[in-house]
Amino acid sequence: xxxxxxxxxxxxxxxxxxxxxxxxxxxxxxxxxxxxxxxxxxxxxxxxxxxxxxxxxxxxxxxxxxxxxxxxxxxxxxxxxxxxxxxxxxxxxxxxxxxxxxxxxxxxxxxxxxxxxxxxxxxxxxxxxxxxxxxxxxxxxxxxxxxxxxxxxxxxxxxxxxxxxxxxxxxxxxxxxxxxxxxxxxxxxxxxxxxxxxxxxxxxxxxxxxxxxxxxxxxxxxxxxxxxxxxxxxxxxxxxxxxxxxxxxxxxxxxxxxxxxxxxxxxxxxxxxxxxxxxxxxxxxxxxxxxxxxxxxxxxxxxxxxxxxx
Amino acid sequence: xxxxxxxxxxxxxxxxxxxxxxxxxxxxxxxxxxxxxxxxxxxxxxxxxxxxxxxxxxxxxxxxxxxxxxxxxxxxxxxxxxxxxxxxxxxxxxxxxxxxxxxxxxxxxxxxxxxxxxxxxxxxxxxxxxxxxxxxxxxxxxxxxxxxxxxxxxxxxxxxxxxxxxxxxxxxxxxxxxxxxxxxxxxxxxxxxxxxxxxxxxxxxxxxxxxxxxxxxxxxxxxxxxxxxxxxxxxxxxxxxxxxxxxxxxxxxxxxxxxxxxxxxxxxxxxxxxxxxxxxxxxxxxxxxxxxxxxxxxxxxxxxxxxxxx
Lengths: 310, 310
Fold this sequence. Notes:
Chain A is mostly helical. Chain A is built from 14 helices and no strands.
């Protein structure tokens, strides 16, 4: 199952999910992820460690976002950055960096970039458009569509600026920073989050028309959550100076964390047969991806599998 | 006049234009740039040199844009990338790189990134939104708003990917590439293009309400064209290995080129007293910014002042 999901080179999701879902005979039916399927399970509260990392990323962002005039620019940017539902991806980036021996500060700009770039994507997917009927639960808009569109457009370059500007010639980390930028551009771009958003709208429209097409559904969490978390964990490992083996192990781990998060947290509240078993299978694969790391340290990263259950 | 426009540190537009236009007592009235003012002047056709650079950037982009499935992603990206009105900024980036002794290939990824990121901004400013009435001449849309929104969202990370991925450890150019990324994030972001787009809508709405506020107008070309061209020329100089003096000289030059381009090409067809004189003053300042460069090479860059007149 792991090879089927990851492809022969072990790179999470890039081979399997970049092809047209309708023409992919290699996808085993047992790993289908229904978009609107939640798994009923008792919640575990996020641990203090994860909450502390989230708080640190938020503090970093609050300090970084310019409070330059005019307020019409800085206020919506502050609002949309922190209004988006919290993602586990930025915190996973920090934890992955620490697991490979890096310091928290080495991953913080990448974690902040991941947070702000994802928040911009959330703002744009909630924009009311003339050809995109309201297919999700209505969202409260603090600003009009024009300001929310432009603010999202300003947030993405700002995220990349935070990361590119963290280059420190004294540390000689330029190449790591550039590699992390490429990772994030791919996860956020037209073969990543944007592709997932497109599939999600198609899927939700097909449900509305009572012509639900589950094939589309498989790809939404892979693109919107699986690949985002895979990228986040890989970036942490890259910036922390991990080996190629560690980077790819954490990429696989992140992919499963994201898929589980998509199914369990964003699932939508309905229970579906087999979903619980799929989540359990994914947890096993996630833990397997952490084999070979320092056993004394691995629990700090693995605990996200419980922390992200609610 | 030059100091008034550029600020005491010589960095084009960053000091002067980041403040609220309504509260800026330092702006001399003689440098006001009316948004919708064109200067009637016989056209000079772009020279073969500039056309050749444009063609090379376009070929680079055509090769770079993925033709991966599904067509719903790659077709709109191709279309919107090349549908935007041509900008002189990417070609200026290449020419600036050559002026400081760099090779054309060193600037090509940055030029391509500038092209695609600006094209995404054009796509988003043409999106029909419920709170943004049609204030510009109507634009033909090849795709619906949902696809055009998402495609623009994919184009920006792709532009940064092109640039970040051009890092070549053998050349040791990582720090230059990172510096160029920071330059572009600033020119494209909430203090750059996005700010200009916001001002432009305010200005066009005020004209429509017959309460034209010329103070807003000053900022539109500074943000949308002046700073974009300043960034492009500075990026070319950075990537070509220019000195700090050369980088700042070319930044000033680019700023004036962009301002002239904004006034003359995008002006809107109306003639206004004083505009022609302002353009001539700007040309002089632009040429002054090129003092100190190799006289034998400078004409190749200065010729854009004629080439961009139509």
